[in-house]
Amino acid sequence: MKPTRNHLVSLLIAVMIVGVQFAWHTTEAQASSASAGTGPTTYFVKKGDTLTSIAKRYGVTIQAIAKLNGIKSTSKILVGQKLRIPSKTPVATPMPLATSVPSATRELPSVLPTGRPNN
Asked: I need a surface site. Which of 1, 15, 31, 52 has the fewest CB within 10 A?
C-alpha cells in the first residue's frame, strides 16, 4: 500500500506532538532541579554531547563539572556516563565606578534652559 499525502501528514503531526511533549517534560524537569538549588543535578551523557555543550546547557563551567565528577581529561566522556552537574552559584557583578568630571573642566551649554545665550 502506497502512503498517501494525508497519511504522511497525519504521521508527521503525531511525531511532532510526541516530540513537543518529550521536550516539555525534559525542560520542566531541568527547570525544577535547577531552581531547587539544593545540590548537584544528575545528567546522563547522550551521543554528541561534550563537556562544553553540557556546561553551557546548565550555565556552569567545564572545570566545575570535571572537578565534581573526578574527570581528569575533559575530552573523554562516554555515552551513558552519569555526570553530576553542580548547581549554579550566583556571580556577583561588580558595580561600575562613578566617574566624576572636575567642575573646572565641565563645559557649560551655549544656551541656557531659559533660551538666553550663556555669556
From this structure: 1
